[in-house]
Amino acid sequence: MKNRFFVIDVETTGNKIGTDKIIQIGAILIENGEIIEQFASFVNPNMKLSSFIKQFTGIEDEMLSKAPTFDLIAPMLSEMLEDSYFVAHNVPFDIAFLKAEFRKCGAKWRNCPTLDTVELSRLLFPTLNSYKLNQLATELSIEHDQPHRADSDAEATAQLLVNLLIKLKSLPLVTLKKMQSYAASFQSSLKNLLKDIINEKKQLLLTDTEDYDIHRNIALKVQRRQSQIENERLNFDDFETKSIIPLLKKVDPKFEIRDGQIEMIETIEEAFKTRVHGLLEAGTGTGKTIGYLLPSILHAKKTGKRIVISTYTTHLQEQIMGQEIKILKKALPFSFEATILKGRHHYLCLRKFEECMETDSDDTYDTIFTKSQILVWLTETSNGDVDEINLSSGGRLFWNKVKSDSSCCSSKECPWFSRCYYRQKRNAAEVSDLIITNHALLLSDMKSDFSLIPAYSELVIDEAHHLDDVASDHLGIKLDYTSIQILLNQIGLSDGIELLHKIKLATKSMNIGLSSEIDKVEEQYIETKNMIDELFRTIRTYTLAQKQQSKNEIGRITYRFDSSSEEGPLWKSVKSYAFLAIEMLEDIKFNILSIGEKLEAPFGLITDIKSLGKALGDISNGLSKLLFEHESNNVTWVEIEPKGAQNSAFLYCQPIDISELLADRLFAKKESVILTSATLAINDSFQYIKSSLGLLDFEVITKKIASPFSYKDQVQLMLPIDVPEIKDVEQTEFTCEIASKIIEIARVTRGRMLVLFTSYDMLEKTFYNVKAAAGLDGFVLIGQGISSGSRDRLTKSFKQHEQAILFGTSSFWEGIDIPGEDLSCIVIVRLPFSSPDNAIMARKSELMKQEGKNAFMDLFLPQAILRFKQGFGRLIRAKNDRGVVFVLDRRLSTKSYGKKFIHALPPIEIYEEKTDVLLKKLSDWL
């Protein structure tokens, strides 16, 4: 077949094949890399268009009335198709409609190989965030003026195809050969195309040895060591931050020198110098990140000691490195080294990946495709970090098989030892001035007696208001049916592809008689899986039978239990099954490790046996602590999905109070820890955060740095007085009323609205009430847990639509950044108090009452105020932002504690009227 490609896009009256019809076609013929023919035409469907299709495509009925019908176009399309690849961005959609239309008019359809540019883009550009055509066009600088018009889409798809073919031809021969062996499983017809490219490379005698590091038949990006600029002649005592800050302006013209930033820098310098801890609340817009990075870099250079920067998420780690560190590296008159360090599971284990590449007897499409994606990615990545690659949900499951973990010892026996991504990152961190990590790894390091992060004595914790929750989560235990079964599945059957099969093959090659031991483990494997299933089914049944159960904010049924005081026949069954499960896990662990000791197997197999043995022990210990060992400082609870499987249950154990742990194991062992966030203080007091994090017995510098924004001019707070109090009405009536208010407000703000809830149940009911109501035609409704996608994906979707309303719960109260006109209104439905039924909060409350304290005033209220500040802070992200915050919770006005919420905000205009009066004010102001 010639390199001839028929690229097409169609617009239709809808998505129903056979009922809906094609209304526009754009087609391009490419041969040997050049466009040789183009065709574009409207198509008369002999039916009226819906308002949605008109808005979506920009096509009107009048444009179609004199257009040719499909039967007049079909012969030409058939001719263009001859001896070509059929190419489209989402082939199944376009080809299904074309075949249906060809069938209806009796024209000849030519069967031909297909290339789907969605699939090929995912394969060849594995690190992109989105594979929508318009976003690919932006990423690859392809002109695409009219998205969702067939002619423009076809042209963009053709240019995309050219880019994809160039990328495919650039791949090393070993990568192409391996992809060719997988090609039959792809949806696109790549086999012949790959064969042609491979033959061409062979004929030209092209080698990849200089461009790639080819090891054990896998091509990697060559890791080039960065040349370090010598700073030996510099006296860092001569450098002062005040003289350095103006240099940032030269690198970044948008950079503004702010008084608050100077104040923050000086405070951190003082804390480092006097070896004390610091609590710094830095309002939005103070330039907080530069404010702590600059003094940290200078201190590291002056003392020769590395400083660790910890932030909440891996995304924020990347953001700091890609933005502020990049600016500082350009601006500073000396060099410094900064390294991102994440948890081990973020990095690819090349040994595991190589072994998985050799196993394909049970591979699904997702597995084969993910292997191919990773092969391409390995030619590009320097880090081997999963956050770089865009994997499907099936791809994430495969990643669990090939990720590095603590049991994958970086022994020199490993054939990939010198190329190990985690080891390279760890080595880079050893010689860095700054290590940028995340709270989870920071706490894992603390838990493991500081063995994961290179030694340090100074630490900056950004987003420090999360430290309490992350510590509770990370220092606790979580077990569920699915994760245990996934672990057990790694054992597998002796005639399968997993560990037991590999052991069986190893014993055969070494003539070791272990068949009875293998048979015993196989029998135990089946019995243990069944026992775990029975255990979690019984746990779920027991939970549903409890009267004290409640629902958490994401809709799960929760029940707090105490293993020492639970009773009844069902609980006896739980304990009986748990005892047997623990015994079985210990037995299978012992037998697998015993087999491993008798094997003289390859390094990888022995490592996997030890790794699995440790993991089985962790599960066994976890079940024992959760269901048999009651500790007064821990709280245990179970969560179940109301509509989940019969064995769907999640067991948790967390420390009630982490303040002593942090005090003894972190703050007492470090010279200076700086904790910063936009929300640490409550009405100018840091007492709550000091108490919750264990800082009461330490010398701590505290500083509240005001935001430079003029909130009085930029924000209005509106409190409708005609909203019912939830205690006075049924929740159904309340959600209907809230939906009505949201619709009224949205009409004035033209969407651009974030609606914040404290429970998923209320969010869901309100969302569907708004959706069912009339009056919001043209508005896009995006609901967390309803619309598919992660928080980041939903936020991105919200930004892309002019008239959008985003409904969010817990995670949307903070951490999303939507500056400018994309967001002009926040609606806070309920004040963000934690549920009194929350397992940890309930136990904390009980203990506080025993001590004679007021749990509401000392725990629930301060926590809610900090969350309220976070939610409010989503609105104004830049000095030119303007917007309004509606609070639909009457308690802000009717309860005495409402003033504490108001006082926690910066000075702003507050209006308390009926909704129609407020909307008139808002309309005039906007």
Q: Can you give a write-up of this model?
A:
With about 950 residues, this protein is α/β, with parallel strands linked by helices. It has six domains: about 170 residues, Ribonuclease H-like superfamily/Ribonuclease H (Nucleotidyltransferase, domain 5), CATH 3.30.420.10; about 40 residues, no CATH class; about 130 residues, 3-Layer(aba) Sandwich (Rossmann fold), CATH 3.40.50; about 90 residues, no CATH class; about 180 residues; about 220 residues, 3-Layer(aba) Sandwich (Rossmann fold), CATH 3.40.50.300. The protein has 35 helices and 26 strands. Strands 10-11-9-12-18-8-19 form a seven-stranded parallel beta sheet, with helices on both faces. Strands 22-23-21-24-25-20-26 form a seven-stranded parallel beta sheet, with helices on both faces. It has a five-stranded mixed beta sheet with strand order 3-2-1-4-5, sandwiched between helices. α6 crosses α7. The radius of gyration is 31 Å and the shape is globular.
Name the average pLDDT. Answer: 90
How many distinct helices?
35
Total discrete domains: 6
Radius of gyration, in Å, reads 31 Å
Proportion of beta-strand residues: 5-15%
Helix and strand content put the structural class at alpha/beta
Which percent bin holds the helix content? 40-55%
Q: What's the N-to-C terminus distance?
A: 62 Å
Q: Main sheet?
A: 7 strands, parallel
CATH topology type of the largest domain: Rossmann fold
CATH class of the largest domain: Alpha Beta
Low-confidence stretches: none
Give me the CATH architecture of the largest domain, please.
3-Layer(aba) Sandwich
CATH superfamily of the largest domain: P-loop containing nucleotide triphosphate hydrolases
Shape: globular
In total, the number of strands is 26
Strand order of the largest sheet: 10-11-9-12-18-8-19
